[in-house]
Amino acid sequence: NESYNFKWSLNSCRSRTTCITFGHNAEQLSKIFRCCIEKIVLNRPDKLKCLFLIHYIKCHLVDYRQKGAAVGRIPTNYLRRELGVTDHEILTSRLIDRSIRPLFPAGYYYDTQIICNLLAVDDIFICVNFNPLSHLYNIGWPFPFHRHFVDIMLEAAADNILQQDFCHAIKVGLKHTQQIIQGIQQLVREKGVKKRTDQKLFTTPEEIVKYFPGADSYEITESFNVVAKEIFRNLIINEYRRCDGRDFNTLRNITCEVDLFKTLHGSALFQRGQTQVLCTVTFDSLESSIKSDLITTVARYFPPYATNEIGRVSGSNRRELGHGALAEKALKPVIPNKFPFTIRVTSEVLESNGSSSMASACGGSLALMDAGVPISSPVAGVAIGLITKPNPEKVGDIENYCLLTDILGIEDYNGDMDFKMAGTNKGITALQADIKIPGIPLKIVMEAIQQATVAKKEILQIMSKVIAKPRPSRKENGPLVENIQVPATKRARFLGPGGYNLKKLLAETGVTVSQVDEDTFSIFAPVPEAMYEAKEFINEICKDDQDYQLEFGAIYTATITELRDAGVMVKLYPNMTPVLLHNSQLDQRKIKHPSAIGLQIGQEIQVKYFGRDPTDGRMRLSRKVLQSPATSVVKTLSEKRSIGNAVHESANSA
C-alpha cells in the first residue's frame, strides 16, 4: 500500500491529473503535454525517482539500460562508463518485449525499437510507463498491458509454494492492475492520437508476387501464413488431433541418464521427444562466484546445430540468458542455504523441438543429484500450450480453447501461449508465460497451472526411476574444502611476506586459501591430491620446531645471518626461520646501521626473549636490555640438544 506520482511529458501544454486508488492509498497521474513524445517520469515520494526515455527508431527491439547514477554508484570498469549490457538489463528487456509483443496488430511490419534508460532505480514501473506512451503515440493496440497483467505475460520465481497460494497471488495481482489500466485508458481517450499508416517495410520474393499481380507483396506472404496456421489450429480445436498423434494431456517420450562422464563432478542427459539437453555440475570455491548473494549459477547454451542450422557461435545471446535465468529460478529454492562450494550448472542444448528451458531444469536437477548436492527435492518442468477459437460476434472473447501438454516447437509457433512451469512434488518454484494474443481469461491460467502440475508429477516419477535422491556423498574426483586453525603466533609464517606462501601454494597446487575468522582459514582444493600436497606444504612452513620450548624472559645466544638497514636477522637454533632484531633493540645508543656497533654476519650475540607479538605472531627479542649491570643467566641452544634440555648455568659459575 504505497502511493506513486506519475508524470508523462508529451507533446502538448495541457496538464491534468488522474487518481487511481490502491488499497488505502492513491496513485496520481500528472500529465504534462509538451515538447515531444519521448519522456516519462515516475516520482515515488520519499523513496525512488525513475526517469525513462523512450524513443522510436528502426528495428523491432527492446533495450533497457540502467545508469550507474541510478543506484548512486560509479561503474567499476576501467573507463568508469556504462559499457556492455548486463544480465539484469537483458532480462528486463526481454520482460518488456514479451509484454508488448502480443499487442501489436496483425500485419504490423514496421521496424520499431524501444529504448528505456533508467536514471533512478526501480524497474517495476517501466511497463506501466510504456503503456501510455505507446497508446498516445500511434501504435494500434487494443488495450494497455501491465507487468502484472496475467492476460498478457506472467513470470514468477517462488520458494516452492503451494499451488493454491500461487493461484491466489495471481488473482490479487490481477485485481489491482486493472485499476492502473483504467487510468491509462482514460489518458488515451483524453489525448486521442491518430494511428500512423507509414509504408510497410516487408517485401515478398518476386517469384511469388507474379502469380498475384493485383495484391501487395506483404499481403501474399501474410495470407499464406494465415492459411497454414489456420489449418494447423483447426486440426487441434475441431478434430482434437495434434501433429504428432498425441492427445492433449500426453507427454512425449522421456529418457534420462546420469553419471555420463566420470571426470565430471555431476552430469545428466535429459531427452524429451526431439529436445535433448546435456547438463553438468561443477564445484568451485565460494570466491569464484560472480554473484555475492547466490551459490548457484545456471549457464545455458543454445548452439545453432540444436535446430539444424548454421550460425555464429559467440557470447550468450538474449535467449540463452533468459532461459538460463528461468532454469536458475526453478532450481534455486531446492539448493541448500549452506554449501561449501559455488555450484555451476551448465545446460548444453544438443537438440531442440520445444521447451528446452524446462528440459534444462529437469536435466539440471538430475545433474545436481548425481553430483551429491543435497537438494531438498527433485525439480521438473513442462510447457503448456494454448489453441483458441475467437468468438466472431464479440471481439476479444474466446469461444473455445484447448490446452496442450508438453508442446512441440511448431505448436509453440502456431499457438497462443507458451506456459512454462517448474517445481517439485510439493509446489511451484518458477513460472513464465508468454501469451501471444491480446488477453486470456483468468480461468485458462488456472487450468494451465493444474494441467502443468499433473504433467510435472508424471515427469518426476520418470526421473525418480533413474535417480530418486542425491548421492550420499560427492564423487571422489570432486573438490575438497577444510578449515584449519592458525594461531596468531604462526600467522606471519603461514602467510609469508605479502601473502607469498599463499600465492606459491596456488601456483603449485591450485589450492586457494581464504580467511574465515581471526584464527580460522579455509582451504579449497580442486582435487584430493591437491589437498594432500597443500597440507604437506602448510605443515612444513608452520611446524613448531623448538618455538614452544622458549622461555619468556630467558637469555639465548643468537647467530647473525644478515645485516639490514633496519637491523639484523638472527637465528636462535639451526633450523629456525631468521627473525629481525631491530636497530632500536640492538644497543642503548641510537644507531643507523648494525655495522656502527661492529656487528658482523656469523657473529653470536646474546638476546633476551619476550615471547611473541599477539597481533602478528612475530618473535620479540632484545639485546639492548642486556646492557645493564643486572646479572642474567645465558641459555645455549644447540642442534644436538633441545631447548628443554639446554644447560642452565648460574651467574656465579659463568
Short description, anyone?
The protein is an alpha+beta fold. The protein is 26% helix and 27% strand. Among the domains are: 6-137, Ribosomal Protein S5, domain 2, CATH 3.30.230; 204-241; 254-466, Ribosomal Protein S5, domain 2 (2-Layer Sandwich), CATH 3.30.230; 480-542, K Homology domain, type 1 (Ribosomal Protein S8, Chain: A, domain 1).
Give the SSE layout:
Elements (H helix, E strand, L loop, with lengths): L3 E7 L4 E8 L2 E9 L5 E5 L5 E5 L2 E2 L3 E6 L20 H14 L12 E6 L7 H11 L16 E9 L1 H29 L14 H4 L7 H21 L16 E5 L7 E7 L2 E10 L11 E6 L16 H14 L10 E10 L4 H15 L9 E11 L7 E8 L3 H6 L2 E7 L4 E8 L6 H23 L15 E6 L2 H8 L4 H10 L2 E4 L4 E6 L2 H15 L12 E9 L3 E5 L7 E4 L21 E9 L6 E4 L11 E2 L19
Helix pairs in contact: 1-6, 2-3, 6-7
GO molecular function: 3'-5'-RNA exonuclease activity; polyribonucleotide nucleotidyltransferase activity; RNA binding
Family: Belongs to the polyribonucleotide nucleotidyltransferase family.
EC number: 2.7.7.8
Characterise the protein shown here:
The protein has 654 residues and is an alpha+beta fold. Among the domains are: 6-137, GHMP Kinase, N-terminal domain (Ribosomal Protein S5, domain 2), CATH 3.30.230.70; 204-241; 254-466, 2-Layer Sandwich (Ribosomal Protein S5, domain 2); 480-542, Ribosomal Protein S8, Chain: A, domain 1. Helices cover 26% and strands 27% of the residues. It has 12 helices and 27 strands. The protein has helices spanning 87-100, 126-136, 163-191, 206-209, 217-237, 318-331, 356-370, 409-414, 442-464, 488-495, 500-509, 528-542, and strands at 4-10, 15-22, 25-33, 39-43, 49-53, 56-57, 61-66, 113-118, 153-161, 254-258, 266-272, 275-284, 296-301, 342-351, 380-390, 398-405, 417-423, 428-435, 480-485, 512-515, 520-525, 555-563, 567-571, 579-582, 604-612, 619-622, 634-635. The strands form 6 sheets. Strands 22, 23, 24, 25, 26 and 27 form a 6-stranded mixed beta sheet that branches. Strand 15 and strand 16 form a beta hairpin. Helix 2 (126-136) packs parallel to helix 3 (163-191). The longest helix has 29 residues, at 163-191. Mean pLDDT is 75; it is low at 1-17, 24-59, 69-74, 122-137, 143-150 and 639-654.
